[in-house]
Every structure is written in structure tokens, then in C-alpha cells.
Fold this protein.
Amino acid sequence: MVELSRRRAIEDVASELFSAHGYAATSVRDIARVLDIQGPSLYAHVTSKEDVLWAIVDRAATRFETAAEAAVASGAHAGQDPAAALAALVRAHVRVITDDVGAAAVFVHEWRALAGERRAGVLGRRDAYERRFRDLIEAGIATGDFEMTDSSLAATAVLSALNGIPGWYRADGRLPANRVADHFVDLVMRMLLGASR
Amino acid sequence: MVELSRRRAIEDVASELFSAHGYAATSVRDIARVLDIQGPSLYAHVTSKEDVLWAIVDRAATRFETAAEAAVASGAHAGQDPAAALAALVRAHVRVITDDVGAAAVFVHEWRALAGERRAGVLGRRDAYERRFRDLIEAGIATGDFEMTDSSLAATAVLSALNGIPGWYRADGRLPANRVADHFVDLVMRMLLGASR
DNA sequence: CCTACCGATCGGTAGG
DNA sequence: CCTACCGATCGGTAGG
């Protein structure tokens, strides 16, 4: 966590605290204390506590979207192999989480604390993101690669399982990030692939 | 949500509010307002805000444990058919969630707000509960019913997927609780069963 | 980035 | 179950 800018350092500290204790249970002074400054001094860099949350959530959402776009568009399977595309999407999702567990946890759990348009915007982007999973599952069923299933429930189940990762993954834990991704790709493929495998 | 006792009504209202906004973001006065009483009047029935949270979490944990015990111990598959036992365990877990979505969500997400022994106790019970899933997965691998996999990661993935249910399930939604359970049993079995299926 | 300070709200108590 | 009230803490501002 190198300090590129003071603003960014604030967001990184806030990510850790928000993910560990929740947005509402974290005070502005808690964040300041970690940075060894006084509470009010934070406001030289940010305009409100909610702005910090928004910055974290917006950046995390963008990272998920960018990674998904790259994963699905890349390679020989562009638009023609749903199973390979879904595997790449799962792998990209795991990587975004393991690259910044705190931010991912905040994105997944703390969007409720946002108000009005920001909250609605995040929900919309989350729906669009989930639709990528659902569409690939449906495409795989259509080609006969995947067994018949409720695509909406399956997509939600897969994303819930993936989004549980911040709850147990540790960078210095038993499984390195790449192995975690391998396992999830395996589990998802087993869950969906038909007798063709 | 019938009012059996005032104390229970308080816990039911608190479950709704805690699950919707989080423990820290819910004030004692918020709970009182829904019950049409004054904030301090709550303390005629409870000793602290955290006691209310604890009551909700403890009861939910007990419901999960009791349902799991009954599911695994019952029927002809007692201790001899890991796949059938795991299916029953998944079904029981879904039922506990759909029977009281608010309490389940609080159990899954708000235990962080507990302090000291209570927090440690819940974590211990959660671990023991997860071990039921892991042990059955390992037993199924040992008998050859399930394909080889990382049992710990698989158990966590399954539970994360199930615990995502409060995030989208609605009692008056597209899928009734029984169908949700059917689908999750199917997905979990597909994920784990080997070529023997 | 600091000190001094603001109004609002928090969980909870006293005393009926 | 109520009114009146408590000390603590909250997010944030003023003015340097």
C-alpha cells in the first residue's frame, strides 16, 4: 500500500476500516488516527465521509467492469465459446478481489450506505455486471455446452460464492490467488457443464 | 410476524432494521419508532442494544444448528450416504434462511458488531457448522461419490452461495422457497458429483 | 494540517 | 411505558 497521494492513502485506510468494521461503525477520526493526523485535517483532502466511500465503491466497480470487459473480449473465444468466456470472467473476478480485498469487500457490502443517485447507480452497474454472468450461462445452455438450469439463480449463486472470498482469503494464506481462481473456475464449470465434458 | 411478546416484537423489528441498514446504522430510537413507543421505553424490555443483536444472532445460530442436526441424522442415509446427507443439509440451510430472512441476514453479516466472548462464540459455532459441510464433502470424496476437490474451499463456496440468498430472495418473488432449495441442491450436487451420476 | 468549536444524535439512566 | 436528562461521540466548519 504505497502512498501515491494523500487522497489515495485516505481511501486505502478507509477501505481497510470500512471492510473490517463497516462504514457506519467507522468514524472520520478512526481514519485520521491511522494516518497520524487530526480528524478535521481529513477535510483538507475530502469533502465528506460519504465521498470517500463513493470513491472506493466507484473505483472498485470500474475495476470489475474493466476486467470483465477484457476477459470476455480477449482471446480466440470472443463471442463464440460461452464456457471459456465464463471461465475467463470468473478468473478475472477473482483477480480483482484478491488484488484489493478491502475495496472489494466495501463494494460488495457497503453500497447500502450510499444515498440517492449514487446508490441507484451502483445497483444498476451491479445488475449489468451480473447480467454478463447470466448471459454467458444462457449462451452455454443454448449451445448445449451447459446443462439446463435457472440462469438467473445460477449467476447469483456463482457471484455470491465469489463475493464471499474477501471473508476468508488472505494474501499470505494457504492458497495463493491463482490457485483460488483455478478452484473457482473448476467448481463453476463442474456445476454447469453437461455430459459433454 | 405475530407479536408473541413485546420482547420478541422488538427482536423482529430489530432484525428487519439491522438487516436492511446494518447494526451500527440503526439507532435504538429507530427500533422504538416502528413499535410506536419512545426510545427509552425499550429499556423496560432489553438491557442494551447489543443484547438485542445477541438474541437475534444466538437464536439464528441455534436454528441453523438444530435444522442441520435433524437433516443429517434423519432418514435412511444416516451416516452412510454423504451425497444424500449433504443434499438434506443444503435444503435445511435454505429453509432456515427463507423462514426468517432478516434474522439470517443479521446472523451472516452483523456478528462483527458483537464484542469479546459473544463474538468468539459465534465464530466458533460458525466454524463448527461449516465443518459439517466440509466433512460431508470429504466423506463423499472418500466413497467416490464426489469428484476430488479442495473440500474446505468447496464448503466455503457452497455456504457463501447459500448465504447470499437473503440478498435477493423475497417470499412473494418469482421462486418459492421450496424451488430455491431444489435449485441449490441441484447446483451443489452437479458441482460435486463425479462421473457416477 | 492544526486548534477550537458547532449542532445533532448516540446509547443509556433516573424517577416516576 | 413516559418525560427529562446525561456524557460521549458524531460529521463537519471557521479561521488560521
Observations:
- Chain B touches chain A through 35 residues (CB under 8 Å).
- The first helix of chain B runs from residue 6 to 21.
- The radius of gyration of chain B is 19 Å.
- Chain B has eight helices and no strands.
